[in-house]
Structure formats: C-alpha cells, structure tokens
Amino acid sequence: MRKKKKTVNFIKVGLPLYRVSVAVFFGVSLDGIIKEGVRGGIDSKKFTEEWKKWPSEQISGTSCTGFTMEYGEGNKDVLVWIRKKPQKLSEYAVLYHELYHATDHIADSRDFYTGDKISEPRAYIFEYLFMEVSKVLW
Question: What is the pTM of this model?
C-alpha cells in the first residue's frame, strides 16, 4: 500500500547568519499567513491594515501567480506566496522566481550591494533557499 504524502502548504527557511527567515506559502489565505506569522513570533501589530491591503489584492485576484514582500510591516523576515504548490516545471519556475526576489530583499536589507554586478553572497543565499525549499517539495 502506498503511503499518502503529507500536504505541504508552508515552508520556513531560516538564515541565521543574516538573522532572517523566509516563509514560503502555497495557496494559503492572508488570515492563515498572519496566523502562522504570529505563531512564529511576529508581533500581531506588524500586520497593519496598510500592510494587508496589497497581499489581499494579490491573493483575491486571479492573475497573480506569486509575490514576495516583507513579512509584516517593518519586519526583516520575508514572505513568499505562491498560488499553487508546484507540480510541473513551469510552476517551479514561479517559485524560484519569487525566491530570487526574496534573495534581493535580504540583500537590500543587509546592504549587500557594493557596485559589483556579480555578488557571491546573493548567489549563495539563492542557492541555499533553492535547496532548502526543494528538499521539502521533492
């Protein structure tokens, strides 16, 4: 008998060196995202009405396949939301596209940009996020 795979709708990747986490959600509602954030230690006051406006529009719309933003107003953690957990290559492309934005968010918040167009710290962060998320999904 085949074992039923556990449904994954949330993956948290910690980057302790940078004191930041990336939370990846698949098809989770805004309320679920906020609930998980509070459970993970983000102050509920960080989820202001102003902060909620944009992700709410993206989640309730039909054209957005994914987005990346700060996980609560003024918080350094990163929220990645993907409409559908990837099953095929084109859907993985959306996930990895958003992980690239998460990498940029971390680099910007830590002032990585030195004028060098080839940034090894950014490349290592992207590789780490890619590997950690892929370990869970594959």
Answer: 0.90
Distance CA 106, CA 1 (A): 44
Does residue 100 sit in helix, strand or coil?
Answer: helix
Helices (H), 1-138: 30-39, 49-60, 89-109, 120-137
> Where does residue 115 rank: exposed (0-12), middle (13-18), buried (19+ CB within 10 A)?
exposed
pLDDT digits (tens, 9 = 90+) for 6-22: 678 999 999 999 999 99
Q: Please give the pLDDT value at position 119.
A: 77
Q: Within 10 A of 4 (CB to CB), how many other CB atoms are there?
A: 6
The span from the CA of 99 to the CA of 120, in Å, is 16
Beta-bridged to residue 10, according to DSSP, are 25
How far is it, in rounded angstroms, from Cα 77 to Cα 80?
10
**57's tokens:** 């529009």
Tokens representing residue 26 in the block: 């698949």
Alpha carbon separation from 48 to 30, 54, 63, 120 (Å, rounded): 12, 11, 24, 35
